[in-house]
Structure formats: structure tokens, C-alpha cells
Specification:
Blueprint lengths: L2 H15 L3 H12 L4 H7 L6 H40 L18 H15 L3 E2 L5 E2 L1 H4 L30 E2 L5 H23 L11 E10 L10 E11 L4 H15 L6 E9 L2 E10 L9 E10 L1 H6 L8 E7 L1 H9 L12 H4 L4
Parallel strand pairs: 1-4
Antiparallel strand pairs: 2-3, 4-5, 5-9, 6-7, 7-8, 8-9
Bound molecules: phenylalanine.
The site of phenylalanine has 10 residues, from strand 8 and strand 9.
Amino acid sequence: MNELDALVESARTGFAQAATPADLENAKARFLGKSGRITELMKGMAALGVGEKKSRGAAINLAKQAIEAALNERRQALLDAELQAQLKAEALDVTLPGRQRGQGGLHPVSLTLERIEAIFGSMGFDVAQGPEIESDWFNFTALNTPEDHPARSMHDTFYVEGGTEAAPNLLRTHTSPMQIRYAVQHVKKHRARVDAAKAKGDTGVAGMPEIRVIAPGRTYRVDSDATHSPMFHQCEGLWVGENVSFKDLKVVFTDFCRTFFESDDLVLRFRPSFFPFTEPSAEIDIQFQQGPLAGRWLEVAGSGQVHPNVVRNMGLDPEHYIGFAFGMGPDRLTMLRYGVNDLRLFFDGDIRFLSQFQ
Ligand code: PHE
């Protein structure tokens, strides 16, 4: 190998050893720089004769071109490597699923309440909400529950500060106070309509529209075990008119249960019972004909004909108006519908349990 070929070869090796663009520039200086090998060889030609200069110059130029080509090749290789490294570092897997927001959902008892509202809504029932902190007038007295009734005892109810006319003093033990609250408003609105019509000289106003309402919500009692929680839900139902009968209550409630449980052959039983605010009173039991609970009677609601004293407290004449009320437990309905056997699961807030109802 002649001297020039050896020079080109050592430039190639030098460039190949440069791992970074900066190393490469240093290596370049050694061969192509001002005091690099090629420049030195050019200078060395000054001493040569004309003929020799020509051939020597051409040979040096060839070597210089070869070194430049090697340099460019290595430059490009380093740039490519740098780009590859960068692409690798910034790699983005577009096939990965995106980060999603946690998806919430309704609580199983809320799902039941929505269902109850939809079914009774389709039967012409209004939906009303009322206060959870009640006065004993609405919770007991107006509902024909006397002062000395055991339901009023400290052991059965959560009392709070207050207790004057204006200050409610207990956590409602049932949704029945909504019977009075709703009916009183309904009667008032009707009377206002009649008065307004009369003022305009219109005396032929139609009679009062029937009261048909459900009132779902939270209720409280001093009870706590697998089937009782100190906070639980109830849904009241009230139907008052001039011509309503127990038969209507039976039809409506049977229809509701069959729709709610999607079970056309479900059977209902009205078992005589006692509530101070209804007379006669009945517990409503249901019986599934199929499935794991088939044949067992399960209590789902209390009900009865609204007591005349309660009708009076609604502002109506019990000689003309008759009504039926029921109070059911949406928590219980939820347990039956989904086959859950411990009520406390609903209120522990464990997402592993709750997310199963979505
Ligand atoms: N309020 C009663 C209870 O909590 C249920 C009920 C409601 C009974 C309406 C009769 C009529 O047990």
C-alpha cells in the first residue's frame, strides 16, 4: 500500500472511531485541517519539479477526495444514529389505550329509587321530597300517633336540639310525614284556584284533583344489624280522592311489584296489621313463584286506609275524602332484586361492591 492509500485508510479508521459529531470534527482536523496531513503533503510539493508536481498533485487530490467522502459518510451515519436514538427515546405507542377518566355510576339504591319513580310516574303519581329533620307534629302527632306511643321513645328515634313549633327536633323515622306535608299543599293550591275562579265570577270550578304522590327519601331509626341500618330509605305513597278504594291500592301495588321485579306471576298478600295513621292497616308481602326465593313470603311495605284523624289533619273532610297510603323500603327491594343479603354493604361505600351494579 502506498503512503496516500495508507493515509486514506487511517482517516477512515479515525472517522469510524469518532463516536460523536465533536469527535469527528477533531478527527477531520487531523487530516483536512490547516495543519492536517493533506495540507502538509500539499506544502511538501513546493520542492518538486513541474512534471512531478502534476502527478503528485493529482494523487494527493484523489486521496483528499476519498478522505472527504469518508468524512461525509461518517457524518451522515452519526446523524442517522442520533435520529434513531431520539426516535427511540421519544417512542409513542399509539396502540396503547388512552388514559380514561374514572367512570362513576349510580348507587344501587338510587337505581331502585329511579325505578320506583318511573313506575309510579307512569301511573300518574307525582314525586315529592321533604325534610329529613322533622318536627314531631309531622312525624307523629299529625299522623295520629299519641304522645305516649312507644315509637316516640328515645330508643327508637334520633332527637336533635330544638323542639319548638318552628324548630324541627328529630330525624324523621319514616316518610309518612310527607303525607301531611304534600296533602296540605295540594289542598291549599286547590282552594287558591277555587278562590281565584270565584273572584272572576266563575263558580263552576271542578272538584279537587285526586292526591296521587310518592315521596322517597332517607329515614332514621336507632337500629343496626344485617337488615337494619340507622339510616335507611323509605318511599311513601298516598292516594286520596272521593272515590278511591282498597282495590285501587291492591291493583296499583301489585302492578308496581310485578313491573319492578319483572315477574308477571308474582303474588301479593295483604296481612292485617296496625299503624296509628291507617285503619284498617296491612303489611304487604310478596311471593316469587320462581328463582331462589320462590315460595317464601317477603314483607315489602306497610299500608292501609288513611285514618280519619289524618285526613282531617290534611285539611280534608273524612266524610268526603278517603285515602290509601303505603310505605315501602327501597333498600329491601334492592336486596331482593339483586340477591344481596347484608344491608350494610350498601352503606359501607366499598367501590368493589358498588361498581357491580353499573
Ligand atoms: N310509616 C310506616 C312505617 O314506617 C309504613 C306505612 C306507611 C304504613 C303508610 C302505612 C301507611 O313502618
